[in-house]
Amino acid sequence: MRMTESQLAQYRRDGYLIFPSLFSAAEIGVLRAETARLSAIEAETVIRERTGGVRSIFRVHEADGATRSAAFRALVRTPRVLGPTRQALGTEDVYIYHTKINTKPAIEGTVWMWHQDYGSWQRDGCARPDMGTFAVMMNDSTEMNGALYVVPGSHKRGRIEPYYDENTSYKFWAVAKRDMIEVLRSSPPPVPIVGPAGTCVVFHCNLLHASGHNLSAEDRWHLYISFNACANAPKFTAQSRPDWVVSRNTAPLPIEADDAILNSGTEPELIRAPSPI
Ligand SMILES: O=C(O)CCC(=O)C(=O)O
């Protein structure tokens, strides 16, 4: 799948592009079954909320490791993901920087402060912002359940030097309040990425984004597939963050079959089970 010229122009103008209902209910059923299975694993790639629920599951796209998954490995290689991502990054040679499922559990899943992903990735040693993320909503995404918000066009401001936020919710490199207020007052209103399960969005690594608390009764399952241009891979040192955040597998990712999720051998989720209390 390729973005049309007008979609590509929109991506370049706004820094993101939404693909409504890109994955079918059957495919989402497979991915949800896998997310439920992976949530039960104890491993360093499964990060928990302070209150105990699963917050993030990293490294679901490789063939090895505790959180490997044939279905997610198939998903990241589909033309629907890799086609637009290659166009967004402006090269056919892209690799996966990391994958993570942010499960944002019901009631306890909380805020991600305004940030640019390149705020962290430049610190990892990636010289240029030739990077982006393709996100897949694995349930209906609503403002109530902590949708992702983006500031249209904010990628054009370039990288804004972040600060390390240790106090709000998750410890990471966020944009300072003063800078963010200036951006919000001088930008179009932030847009929530809402839509039915299967909706996807591709966004630039300098696009300002954030999300709020999950006030709903159901976990909010989003997959984030972050990509880098192969030519922009960082040099690895003893100080580099672990492989599951900054992948050492920098080989170009091949496009494979578009129907591979359904043929991955995973039984789809049949009944939408309520989250355990
Ligand atoms: O899961 C979310 O709502 C936002 C996550 C995010 O922005 C990130 O991981 O960089």
**Regions with little confidence, pLDDT below 50 for 5+ residues:** none
> Are any ligands bound, and if so which?
2-oxoglutaric acid
Q: Main beta sheet: strand number and arrangement?
A: 7 strands, antiparallel
The CATH class name reads: Mainly Beta
Query: How many discrete domains?
Result: 1
CATH-assigned fold name? Jelly Rolls
Distance between the termini: 40 Å
Enumerate the strands of the largest sheet in spatial order, edge to edge or round the barrel: 1-11-6-13-4-3-2
CATH superfamily: q2cbj1_9rhob like domain
Roughly what fraction of the amino acids lie in strands? 15-25%
Q: Classify the secondary structure makeup into a structural class.
A: alpha+beta
Strand-and-helix sequence, N→C? HEHEEHHEEHEEEEHEEEE
Q: What is the number of strand segments? A: 13
Gross geometry: globular
How many helices in DSSP terms? 6
Provide the CATH architecture.
Sandwich
Q: What is the share of helical residues?
A: 10-25%
Mean pLDDT metric: 94
Radius of gyration: 17 Å
Describe, in plain words, how this protein is organized in 3D.
The chain is α+β, with helices and mostly antiparallel strands. It has a single domain (5-232), classed as q2cbj1_9rhob like domain (Jelly Rolls), CATH 2.60.120. Helices cover 21% and strands 21% of the residues. It has helices spanning 5-14, 25-39, 70-76, 79-89, 117-121, 177-185; strands at 16-19, 46-48, 54-58, 94-102, 112-115, 131-137, 148-150, 163-165, 172-174, 191-192, 200-204, 209-211, 222-229. The strands form 3 sheets. A 7-stranded antiparallel β-sheet has the order 1-11-6-13-4-3-2. Strands 5-12-7-10 form a 4-stranded antiparallel β-sheet, with no helix packed on it. A hairpin with a 5-residue loop joins strand 2 (46-48) and strand 3 (54-58). The chain is globular. The model has no long low-confidence stretch (mean pLDDT 94). Residues 102, 104, 112, 117, 146, 148, 209, 211, 222, 224 line the site of 2-oxoglutaric acid (AKG). 2-oxoglutaric acid binds next to strand 12 and strand 13.
